[in-house]
Design goal:
The chain contains 3 helices and 7 strands. With 131 residues, it is of the alpha/beta class. The protein has a domain of 82 residues: Nucleotidyltransferase, domain 5, CATH 3.30.420.
Length: 131
Amino acid sequence: MALKRGPKVNPNFSMSSMTDLVFLLLVFFMVTSTLVAPNALKLLLPRSDSQTPAKAITTVSITEDLHFYIEQTPIPFQDLEAMLAQRLQGQIEPTISLHVHRTVPMEEVVKVMNIAKDNHYKLILATQPLK
């Protein structure tokens, strides 16, 4: 009676396939992590489909050639804060609607936002509706 032995099992463990797998995962996560970071420079226009319940008391507009308007009245930027204080005097919740042309630099928008923040005005940034 001859007993047959099965094939011998090699007790050594090969790490080459494991290192290949770890390397591929590392490359995959490195590539996808660079794709996930948003690029803020590609913003073209603010668009929104939401409505705010607050009613603006006055409107500040900035045109593409950086002229400032309160309602329909052109005003130099230096006088903007004083005119807003005069117009919003005595209001319980002074609210400004800010209308900005799409080509206006953010620095100009932030200037108006800082005026609103310093004087505790509420600010609504007007956007175009989604189509």
